[in-house]
Write a structure and sequence with these properties.
Largest sheet of chain A: 5 strands, antiparallel
Number of domains of chain A: 3
Radius of gyration of chain A: 18 Å
Oligomer: heterodimer
Low-confidence stretches of chain A: none
CATH superfamily of the largest domain in chain B: Aldehyde oxidase/xanthine dehydrogenase, molybdopterin binding domain
Number of helices of chain A: 10
Strand content of chain A: 15-25%
Shape of chain A: globular
Number of strands of chain B: 28
CATH class of the largest domain in chain A: Alpha Beta
Distance between the termini of chain B: 56 Å
CATH architecture of the largest domain in chain B: 2-Layer Sandwich
Distance between the termini of chain A: 45 Å
CATH topology of the largest domain in chain A: Uridine Diphospho-n-acetylenolpyruvylglucosamine Reductase, domain 3
CATH architecture of the largest domain in chain A: 2-Layer Sandwich
Order of helices and strands of chain A: EHEHEEEHHHHHEEHEEEEEHH
Shape of chain B: globular
Mean pLDDT of chain A: 97
Largest sheet of chain B: 7 strands, mixed
Helix content of chain B: 25-40%
Largest interface: A-B, 17 and 24 residues
Mean pLDDT of chain B: 96
Chain lengths: ~260, ~800
């Protein structure tokens, strides 16, 4: 690590002000940033910890939606969302290990937009709204490729609002070392159609599988996608799996998610 | 009723009290006032010419005390290879110098070319970044086949990337070739024994200390064998007289072989301590551990098995390329040769074995012994090709093995690979395995799996290993440059408790529990009154340390011999006290008595008398009660086992789950069954890890892609089943006093082929014509194999 200053503001306004300093960096749960700092791969002058911002904490239900504060940990989501949105709670309960879940936050995960992270699949698969200190961003506009989002410099995710589906499920086929998703598929059925979001597979990061959405919107069963195939073009090819393998897994995991959706 | 102390008692491990409550004392826990920190500058390229190293900017940075480069060590010796191997043509192996710091060239990613000593680690890191090294990147030599064909070299001065070309047994070569040519059936298999990163929980750490007043050095270091480290530093690398150097390995948090070896960092901290008159500490971070701890395995092998019409084995012929990495680590030349080739007859009466091993230099981390060291590679090749042969000739794999097993009435048995097995009963182990694994219930379980859409497979393996690594006479003939005895001193203190100084050094094995069980049993006293002293060359006799499942078989035997001497002397003292002849003294339950009388003295009274020798017949008995023994056995020991495993394969994804794993081992006599079970569990975890997930991967530029836990897969609890472990069918070793054989490596030797055999069985049961998949059998590899079949 290089030396840095750290602040722990109590409000979004103070956090935004603190992030105005040159080379300042927001710190969520630190599950990506802290290892990066330890490797000396980043050198922020100042970390602005969001963990003390109470208005960014917690879970609330509101008119068919569930709103989760940006600084809410995975463990909190896992334990508090199960009654309303079980697929989302299950996803949170299977991120990392207990230490990761007790530190890592939903806002941190979405802001980082790791191409193999779980939360981006839930947000995109649910058509969630990313709420920042400045605006509300639809998930379809928010994710812009691997580690790239619509967030501007100094913009903070204060909350995420998920419309609660009729049925949903997340299937993660883990990369065995990191236990991130080698391929993860989030399927959610709403009254106006089905959304399918895929993480872990693509060089473009999380994305929707529109052919499957169309097929499943007409017939919500694993059989509906039996004749579809996934192109391996632009999928990730690394020591854990080829692009072809990932393409195959996208279809298998989608079928399993549909079968398991509740 | 089971015993609660002594030999055979499953007592809990005493050392766990401190380990489990955070009170272990590991090297990095040692903090010395005024200590400073060493940080190494390490190569980011696999192969490069060092054109210049400018340390001026770094030297001017805050807190920097000294900077070393390879130039500073150009005149000191290299870290030597401990085992000389001669090639088939009689020429000795190539031994390029392994310097303390790279000089002239860097040869693998992580190769250290400079070191900064500063007041703090942070300052040293900052200064390392300010070193300006002009290193011209050269094409990396990574793949062994390419290395042998290349016209550029890891070590230019030897003009080849081949370290040696070894044949075993060379006199059998022609006959083996002939047998294979004329055989009724020959099964051929090409396989890779995947490279593994040792991943000890505790990273390496070394602290150098120098006292200018006495010219004495102390090295605290993470070592499995402090005396060997001292010998290497004194005799080869730095020339510090042994009597001026103390090497202390305190608690060691795992090693698996990687902490046998002397590393350059140890020499550096000593040199820096002397130069600065300060205590200098270096602790590896996890990335350094991945890049620079000696890796394990990394063989590419072609094996052929010749059979007659009845399925009798006629010959095994093996061609192996063994990666030794960029430099020869201390035992890297022994591992693929005498710890591998000599085991290539396995448990079988096969008359002919020929093994050819080419050791190859590459621009990768050095490779050396890792849990099992050569024997897992031998077992894997044998037990995979036997399984394949069984399928090809349509014979049950267990039946084929049984048909060729050495039988109990054949011991001592001279194997075709040159060893003499002293005892065993492989059929009895197989019988026990079939029973405790409920092999009979397999078909029902297979049906249950099928109902879930999963393919269940049954895999089997029989292994033998040579361990209790020794004896000096034999290993000397085979090329070892060190002896492989061990030593113990038993000191009975005046108040009747004991300190036992041993040459073995636990890095997880439980010596502090097990050795006192042996001594306590012999003396008839409570093991709790006996403590083990180990790891400090100023306190212990010259022993060779812990590896090769040797601690109990070799050092434990030295403990027995020293304790026998104690008993003999104590009997003399008791005879004097009881006014009897020492021939009439009996020792039972800690009491010395005169046979046939009620006259007796306790062990404690004898101990006190030894140190308060009033009225002693000093011409017959010296004061004190302390004895040392060195033990050098007559042979290796030969543990063996029958393992089986059941896996479920998901045909849609290729995901393998190990559902059941059974290990039936012959360890001879067992001192502490709980400790032995734990050793087997650990070995099985590592073996299953190798078989399924551990994936050391260098790219073509020699960059280690799997250099962190984000990409290097360690087996975790949920990757592993509950184990069935049985060591009830032991046949005592015939040549050591405890009849013990060693258990530390068995699990890691026996399990990889078992798992692979089970996966192949599962796939074939599902109609997939897959005959082999290389380890690690990741989901991707299994899926690819199924889809290419």
């Amino acid at each position: 690590m290089y030396a840095f200053d750290i602040e722990r503001p109590a409000s979004v306004a103070d956090a935004v002000a603190a992030l105005g300093t040159e080379d300042a960096q927001a710190l969520g749960g630190g599950q990506t940033l802290i290892p990066t700092l330890k490797q000396r791969l980043a050198a922020p002058s100042r970390l602005v910890s969001l963990s003390g911002v109470t208005e960014m904490q917690g879970v609330a239900s509101e008119a068919g939606n569930i709103r989760i504060g940006g600084a809410t940990t995975h463990a909190t989501v896992a334990s508090q969302v199960g009654g309303t949105y079980p697929a989302l709670a299950d996803l949170a309960a299977n991120i990392g290990d207990p230490a990761v879940r007790n530190r890592g936050t939903i806002g941190g995960s979405l802001a980082n937009n790791d191409p193999a992270a779980c939360y981006p699949a839930a947000a995109l698969g649910s058509g969630a709204t990313i709420i920042t200190n400045k605006r509300q961003i639809a998930a379809d506009d928010y994710f812009q490729g691997m580690f790239t989002t619509a967030l501007e410099e100094g913009e903070i995710i204060t909350a995420v609002s998920f419309p609660v589906p009729e049925k949903a499920n997340y299937q993660k086929f883990v990369q065995p070392a990191s236990r991130f998703a080698l391929v993860g598929v989030f399927v959610a059925k709403y009254s106006d159609g089905v959304r399918v979001a895929v993480t872990g597979a693509s060089n473009e990061g999380v994305h929707r599988w529109s052919a499957a959405e169309e097929a499943l919107s007409g017939n919500f069963s694993a059989d509906a996608i039996a004749d579809l195939s996934v192109s391996a073009d632009d999928l990730i090819n690394d020591l854990h799996g080829s692009a072809e393998y990932r393409a195959h897994l996208v279809k298998v995991m989608t079928g399993r998610a549909v079968a398991a959706a509740m | 009723m089971p015993k609660d102390t002594g030999i055979g008692a499953a007592t809990t491990r005493r050392e766990d009290v401190r380990f489990l409550t955070g009170r272990g004392q590991y090297t990095d826990d040692i903090q010395t006032q005024g200590e400073c920190a060493a940080v190494f500058a390490r190569s980011t390229v696999a192969n490069g010419k060092i054109k210049s190293i400018d340390t001026s900017a770094a030297a001017a940075m805050p807190g920097v005390l000294a900077i070393f480069t390879g130039e500073d060590f150009a005149e000191v010796g290299g870290n030597p290879a401990g085992w000389l191997i001669n090639s088939r043509d009689g020429t000795p192996m190539h031994e390029p110098k392994r310097p303390v710091l790279a000089h002239g060239k860097v040869r693998h990613v992580g190769d250290a070319y400079a070191a900064v000593i500063a007041e703090t680690v942070q300052q040293a890191r900052d200064a390392v970044e300010a070193i300006e090294a002009d290193i011209e990147e050269l094409p990396a030599i990574v793949n062994m086949k390419d290395a042998l064909a290349a016209d550029h070299y890891v070590h230019d001065e030897i003009g080849t990337n081949q370290c040696f070309d070894w044949g075993w047994i060379e006199d059998n070569r022609a006959a083996t070739d002939e047998a294979i040519k004329n055989a009724h059936h020959v099964t051929t298999l090409e396989l890779v024994n995947n490279r593994l990163v040792p991943n000890a929980m505790e990273p390496r750490c070394s602290i150098g200390h120098y006292n200018p007043g006495t010219d004495e050095y102390i090295l605290h270091t993470t070592s499995q064998n402090p005396h060997l480290t001292r010998l290497l530093i004194s005799a080869f690398v730095m020339g510090i007289p042994e009597n001026k150097l103390t090497v202390i390995a305190p608690d060691v948090g795992g090693g698996f072989g990687s902490k046998i070896y002397h590393y350059g960092e140890e020499a550096l901290v000593l040199a820096a301590a002397k130069k600065l008159g300060r205590t200098v500490k270096w602790t590896a971070d996890r990335t350094e551990a991945f890049l620079t701890d000696a890796h394990g395995r990394d063989h590419v092998t072609k094996i052929e098995l010749a059979l007659d019409e009845e399925g009798n084995f006629l010959a095994f012929r093996t061609e192996t390329m063994a990666n030794v990495g960029a430099y020869l680590s201390n035992f890297s030349t022994a591992t693929p040769t005498f710890l591998h080739g000599t085991l290539m007859a396995g448990n079988y009466t096969v008359p002919l074995v020929y093994v050819n091993v080419k050791a190859v230099f590459t621009n990768t981390a050095p490779v050396d012994a890792y849990r099992g060291a050569g024997r897992p590679e031998a077992t894997y090749s044998l037990e995979r090709v036997i399984d394949k042969a069984a399928r090809e000739i349509g014979m049950d794999p267990i039946e084929l093995r049984r048909k060729n097993f050495v039988k109990p009435d054949q011991y001592p048995f001279a194997s075709a690979a040159g060893l003499e097995y002293d005892s065993g009963n492989y059929d009895a182990l197989m019988d026990q395995m079939e029973k405790v694994a409920d092999k009979a219930g397999f078909e029902a379980r297979r049906k249950e799996s099928k109902a879930k859409g999963l393919l269940r497979g049954f895999g089997v393996n029989a292994y033998i290993e040579a361990c209790g690594i020794a004896p000096s006479n034999l290993v000397g003939v085979l090329g070892s440059r060190v002896g492989l005895y061990d030593a113990a001193t038993v000191r009975v203190n005046a108040t009747g408790n004991l300190s036992v100084m041993v040459g073995a050094h636990s890095h997880g094995q439980g010596h502090e529990t097990v050795f006192p069980q042996v001594v306590g049993e012999m003396l008839g006293i409570d093991p709790q009154s006996i403590d083990i002293v180990h790891g400090d060359t100023s306190k212990i006799p010259f022993g060779m340390g812990t590896y090769g499942s040797r601690s109990l078989a070799v050092c434990g035997s030295a403990v027995v011999r020293a304790t026998e001497k104690i008993i003999n002397k104590a009997k003399k003292i008791a005879a004097h006290m009881l006014e009897a002849s020492d021939a009439d003294i009996e020792l039972k339950d800690g009491v010395f008595s005169v046979a046939g009388t009620d006259k007796s003295v306790s062990f404690g009274e004898v101990a006190l008398k030894a140190y308060i020798p009033h009225n002693f017949p000093l011409e017959d008995i010296e004061p004190g009660l302390e004895e040392t023994a060195f033990y050098d056995p007559a042979n290796f020991t030969y543990p063996s086992g029958a393992y089986c495993c059941e896996v479920e394969v998901d045909p849609e994804t290729g995901k393998v789950r190990v559902d059941r794993m059974t290990a039936v081992d012959d360890f001879g006599n067992v001192i502490n069954p709980m400790v032995v079970t734990g050793q087997v569990h650990g070995g099985l975890g590592q073996g299953i890890g190798q078989a399924l997930v551990e994936n050391t991967t260098y790219d073509e530029d020699g960059q280690l892609l799997s250099a962190s836990y984000m990409d290097y897969t360690m087996p975790r609890a949920d990757d592993l089943p509950f184990y069935i472990v049985d060591h009830s069918k032991g046949n005592p070793c015939t040549h050591n006093p405890l009849g013990v054989k060693g258990c530390g490596e068995a699990g890691a030797i026996g399990s990889p082929p078992t798992v692979v055999n089970a996966v192949i069985d599962a796939l074939q049961s599902g109609g997939k014509n897959v005959t082999h998949i290389d380890m690690p059998m990741t989901s991707h590899r299994v899926w690819s194999a199924m889809n290419n079949a």
